[in-house]
Design brief:
heterodimer, A: mainly alpha, B: 7-stranded mixed beta sheet, about 45% helix
Chain lengths: ~80, ~425
């Protein structure tokens, strides 16, 4: 379940933030997304909406911080708090 | 003393770190009026030298145009130097009203309100119009002032990949539950010189019930058949809800900006936009000159036609030399060098050859995309451009980049 979620989130991040012709950006479960400049803080909102819809959860705005969204692994940990 | 030694040391070390990272910005002192040729003191303390300017936003060559200068003098003589007031107390003259009406007619909108700058227009417009029930969906390469303005509003914020219409459409579908959706884009993107796909954006906006905000600062006065902007270029005049633009580039280049668009949205900016409410009215001297600028470019397309010719000639010339350009059709022509140090060295060598063109690198552009951004002007004569091309050929040859593409340049210099 966790592995599946990790891959789903990773795939979403790749489609959403990495350009198709971008061969230079390496992305894995621990790549810093926001501090690494891959995800801009504006579009964090759509990442949050995606997670809430996909996993039928509500993440409070106070929890949706740039730190909590800074890697695929951290995002999965956050989502699991609300799906458990 | 509250400004302690610890404070001085702390702030001093931040400046040192900026310098060490190669990001320190030095000003170059210009001893002449703005134009195709300028007298520059660089480095500071050196004797001045005459160079060809290829980095001003003086697209129409109006910054020092005799008619504009004369209008400024007349404005100064008849309406004074300063207003000593914000607009809504006692800072609005008849010439402010004239300018707003002329800009409305020129841009093909319903109403216009002036701001001290387009930076201020962008800082104020979102907060004045949108609330927390709404969403702003911005292209990821919009200008920094738009990003600041969006941050000041209470609306939800989202973005789409640069000029990626499929991605924009996904975002419009995602946010159908919001009260209003506002798509935000630059008309011409200032670093790459490419145009927003405004015809497609209008079509998507109409299909998904969204409004459009266009920052046309690098287009007003010269893009489109009669220079109205990117909306004219794509045949969508009257279908853009908010246009922000500047008087600080093609339109005489002094300062000032505006929000122009739907009557109610402009009125809300007059009532609520904080940079409008809390900063001084534009000074009469600038307003009077700007009125003449709008008259001048409404009367004839001569200057924008010359600029178009210059941009085409320059682009073709650089391509023939074998430099790697960003494709486009605007008078912003970036010469790609990818490596930050190479861009700095290249710019310095160009200066030695009598050409003033600046290198841009991270954080102004993404890492590994350093460049020399050249900007054409209607003030340039063919002779200026030929001298510029010869300098680019010579400096390009010195650094061994002629005929090389992105991969080869990065392989040789790193990114």
């Amino acid at each position: 379940m966790a592995d599946e979620m990790r891959d789903t989130v990773l795939e979403y991040v790749r489609n959403e933030y990495v350009d198709e012709d971008d061969e230079d950006t390496e992305l894995d479960y621990d790549t810093p997304l926001i501090s690494g400049g891959i995800v801009d803080s504006f579009s964090m909102v759509s990442l949050k909406v995606f997670l809430e819809r996909k996993y039928s959860i509500q993440i409070p705005d106070a929890k949706a911080t740039p730190e909590a969204f800074d890697s695929v692994n951290k995002i999965v940990a956050l989502v699991r708090e609300y799906t458990a | 003393m509250a400004y302690s030694a610890r404070a001085r040391e702390r702030f001093g070390s931040e400046i040192s770190a900026t310098r060490e990272a190669g990001l320190f910005k030095d000003e170059r002192f210009i001893h002449s009026a703005q134009g195709a040729e300028i007298e520059v003191e660089f480095p500071a303390g050196s004797p001045t030298r005459k160079v060809i300017n290829l980095c001003a936003n003086n697209y129409l060559g109006l910054s020092s145009h005799p008619d504009v200068i004369e209008a400024a003098h007349e404005g100064l003589d008849s309406r004074g130097y300063g207003m000593s007031s914000v607009r809504f107390i006692c800072g609005t003259q008849d010439i402010h009203r004239d300018l707003e009406e002329k800009l409305t007619a020129f841009l093909g909108t319903e109403d216009t309100v002036l701001f001290p700058s387009c930076m201020d227009a962008n800082a104020g417009v979102f907060e004045a119009i949108l609330g927390e029930e709404d969403v702003i969906i911005a292209d990821r390469l919009v200008h920094a002032s738009i990003i600041d303005g969006i941050r000041l509003s209470r609306a939800h914020q989202d973005s789409y990949k640069h000029s990626d219409m499929k991605h924009l459409e996904q975002k419009l579908e995602l946010h159908q539950d919001k009260r209003f959706r506002l798509i935000v884009t630059d008309g011409v993107f200032s670093m790459d010189g490419d145009l927003a796909k405004l015809d497609e954006i209008v079509e998507l906006a109409e299909r998904h019930d969204a409004m459009i905000m266009l920052d046309d600062s690098h287009a007003t006065g010269f893009i489109g058949r009669t220079g109205r902007g990117v909306h004219e270029h794509f045949g969508v005049v009257g279908r853009i809800d908010i246009i922000t633009t500047t008087l600080g580039k093609a339109m005489g280049g002094a300062s000032g900006g505006c929000v122009s668009g739907r009557r109610e949205l402009v009125e809300l900016c007059r009532q609520r936009a904080r940079p409008y409410l809390f900063s001084n009215a534009m000074p009469p001297v600038i307003v009077a000159a700007a009125n003449t600028v709008v008259d001048l470019i409404s009367r004839t397309t001569e200057r924008r036609d010359k600029l178009e010719w210059n941009a085409r000639y320059w682009r073709a010339g650089l391509t023939e030399i074998g430099l790697d350009l960003r494709p486009g059709e605007s008078p912003i022509v970036p010469v790609m060098l990818y490596n930050a140090k190479l861009a700095q060295d290249f710019s310095r060598d160009l200066f030695d050859e009598g050409i003033y063109a600046v290198g841009f690198f991270f954080p102004v552009v993404p890492k590994g995309q350093a460049r020399i951004r050249t900007q054409l002007s209607a003030a340039h004569e063919k002779e200026h451009l030929d001298l510029g091309l010869e300098a680019f050929r010579k400096v390009g040859e010195k650094h061994g980049v002629l005929g090389l593409g992105k991969k080869e340049i990065i392989a040789r210099f790193g990114d």
